[in-house]
Amino acid sequence: METPATGPPSPPVMDTGRARRWRKALLERFPKEAEREPFSSWKGGLTESNQRVIRADCERTRADAEYFRRPDVRVKMEAMLTCWCQQQGSRYKQGLNEVLAPFFHLQTEPAEAGEELS
Description:
By secondary structure, this protein is an all-alpha fold. The chain contains six helices and no strands. Helix 2 crosses helix 4 (71-88).
């Protein structure tokens, strides 16, 4: 018995709930976070016990991209990573700078980020 020809495969079905789930996971505020100050009002200092590691990681972040070599970008990244550690009550782990980098880049204006990252 022969089976009928099936033709080309169907395109994958898009998961319409995926975007909603990511938005919820990334942007939803948890009750514990309500007591935290946003980074823009953070007044803490660069005083982590492994601050030297945070600074070194910021200096190595995407060193091939001119934008990430700018001193103001490196200083802000170091402050943001330090703020996060202090608010989480957690020690910095090497590599968190690479987690921050794409989000840091996304919050910049295209002209500020430069053509190389477009």
